[in-house]
Amino acid sequence: MKIAVAGGGYVGLSLATLLAQKNEVVVLEIDEYRAERITDLDSPIQDEYIEKYFDEAKKGERKLKLRATTDYKDALKDAEFVIIATPTNYNDVTNTFDTSAVEDVIEKTLKMKDDKVTMVIKSTIPVGYVEKIRKKYGIENIFFSPEFLREGKALYDNLYPSRIIVGDETKAAQKFAKLLQESALKEDVPVIFTQPTEAEAVKLFANTYLALRVSFFNELDTYAQVKGLNTKAIIDGVCLDPRIGTHYNNPSFGYGGYCLPKDTKQLLANYHNVPQDLIRAIVSANRTRKEFIARDVLKTNPKTVGVYRLTMKSGSDNFRSSAIQDVIKFLRGEGVEVIIYEPTLSDKKFNGFEVENDFDKFCERSDIILANRLENELRDIASKVYTRDLFARD
To answer: What is the pTM of this model?
Structure first.
């Protein structure tokens, strides 16, 4: 069948690649250059498995029926499913996600006047959004299916999903779940069909729990640093409890990336008039951690602080809302010079900060180098590096 995917980011492109193994998939992009790259099977994002699948398809070793376009009529015409994977940034003024891009796709799809099409929202949305949209447009052929992907490993997580959740119980919902199952490599994937609102809640609560876990081990680390204790020894002892486990326990400068900061804020906003303490604490704990990191760095009295990579994790080229950005803003406010080493940037400035992409010059100019995650090239200058990466992994 023909499937349209609106948005060629981590979510959209990984789903498009997954489904293009057995279906005709057209990605609707707003950027002509990105659309051309996708059609040429040249990934515009850094993702190990997308790049691998694209390379194999170009060599004729794998079949992928995939192309991209900026023409919505071309993308949406005759599509049985329209998957919406456009950005929904959090608006701190309105205290909600900006869903305008999602609604733009919905309206364009409705203009096509195709009663057979089913719209599936993959963008993260507020709890209750699908019900609101169904009433607003007088439609039923739309539902939400949350994604649970890691940046840099999005296609892998679609090939080996932990679960498939579809916020609808219609035949179309069952067909969509089957599409995902058939294209995955993992067998016997758990599938849950819910009402739209429950599916929306699953997404926000799952990401907020992950943010909670990150914040817990960061605050454990803060305590150990202040008290002069061995953080790693404490974490090892705590996490050998099988009820706790050794995953997601590596300290950092704070949780960041595209999803966790905005999803925790949205869930907090959804708690309006509902008693809570914990959700608010998860949001504020991240701000407290970043300020602690900045103040800890200031204790070394640096004249120039070097920032090694803006990205949050290895294997990703995305640094939207990375925790380090708030740390360096705090340092600038204290009058410290900050220079950034970020090979993915060609500009000489980033948000007013100097970018120095000659690694040797960067190291020479920096009194201290902040690294959220350690990389091999930092080993020779370990004495200059400030990090809380205790396990050398994400």
So the answer is: 0.91
DSSP assigned state of 351: T
The edge-to-edge listing of strands for the beta sheet with 353-355 is: 349-350, 353-355, 337-341, 304-308, 368-370, 385-386
Backbone angles phi, psi at 120, to 5 degrees: -120, 115
Average pLDDT score over the chain: 94
Asked whether 148 and 180 are in contact (CB, 8 A), the reply is no
- The CA–CA distances, whole Å, from 73 to 13, 33, 105, 218, 360 equal 19, 19, 11, 48, 50
- Three-state SS string over 234-274 comes to HHHHHHCCCCCCCCCCCCCCCCCCCCHHHHHHHHHHHCCCC
- Of 170, 194, 218, the domain-final residue: 194
Measuring CA to CA, which residue among 298, 296, 322, 288 is closest to residue 308? 322
pLDDT of 21-64, one tens digit each?
999 999 999 999 999 999 999 999 989 999 999 999 999 999 99
Cα–Cα distances in Å, from 45 out to 12, 128, 317?
Answer: 11, 31, 7
Q: Which residues are catalytic?
A: 259
Q: Is the predicted pLDDT of residue 318 greater than 70, yes or no? A: no
Q: How far apart are CA 310 and CA 318, in angstroms?
A: 8
Dihedral sign, Cα of residue 213, residue 306, residue 319, residue 96: positive
Look at residue 219 and tell me if it is in a domain: no
Amino acid type, 112 = M
Number of CB atoms found within 10 A of residue 162's CB? 11
Neighbours of 151 (CB within 10 A): 23
Angle 260-270/278-298 helices, nearest 10 degrees? 140
3-class SS of residue 179:
helix
Question: Do 189 and 262 fall into the same domain?
Answer: no
Residue 201 lies in a domain: no
Give the pLDDT confidence score for residue 314 in this predicted structure. 59
CATH of the domain at 270: 3.40.50.720
Q: Of the ranges 255-264, 295-304, 323-332, 333-342, which one carries the lowest mean pLDDT score?
A: 255-264
Number of domains in the chain: 2
